[in-house]
Write a structure and sequence with these properties.
Blueprint: H1 4-17, H2 19-22, E1 31-41, E2 48-49, E3 52-56, E4 59-69, E5 74-81, E6 84-90, E7 94-102, E8 105-111, E9 118-136, E10 145-147, E11 150-162, E12 167-176, E13 179-184, E14 187-193, E15 197-206
Antiparallel strand pairs: 1-4, 1-15, 2-3, 3-6, 4-5, 5-8, 6-7, 7-9, 8-9, 9-11, 10-13, 11-12, 12-15, 13-14
Length: 207
Amino acid sequence: MKVLLPLAIAAAFGAAAIAPAAHADTNDDNWVVRFGVHAVDPKSNNGTLAGARASVDSNVRPTGSIEYMFTPNLGVDLLAAWPFQHDVKLSGLGKVAQTKQLPPTLGVNYHFMPDRTVSPFVGIGLNYTNFFDTKGTGALAGDSVSIANSWGVAAHAGIDVKINAKWIFTADLRWMNIESDVKVNGAKVGTAKIDPLAYGVSLGYRF
């Protein structure tokens, strides 16, 4: 991961640096804005907290993204979302915390067949996950629980389906590296290894 993260940062910001030279699209409609819904589904094993196996549940929320096409094939997009909410459970104790998070993700996408009705794409980028409004529940009710914010690499893949010259239907999947230290009353009790898949659909408009 120490190697992948710098590569993701370079990929996400390098495209912006070469944009003036790379722009070869004669179409003035280089922006694509998408609105949809996505599920954030953490992996099954989320690490050990205070000696107990942790699990983080899934959540579905509205999402939005905006992509700028430097060329017909190459675009940079930024993902945003309504805050996701997750329950944190420990084996033998049940639900011990609840948290909210925002996962803005900046990435570079390569669209393989932009002139076709159906065009698959892949991408790589950088994710920042901000955890907030974390509360202890159950066995930790009344305790101060915090989950550290996380930086990590993100991968992206999906399919664009052109409805017409302006409208696009998109189905996509993202993987995000999210690993965050968890503290209870200021003392670290472990690292939550969430690494979720975020998948969903959206409707896009090109302008």
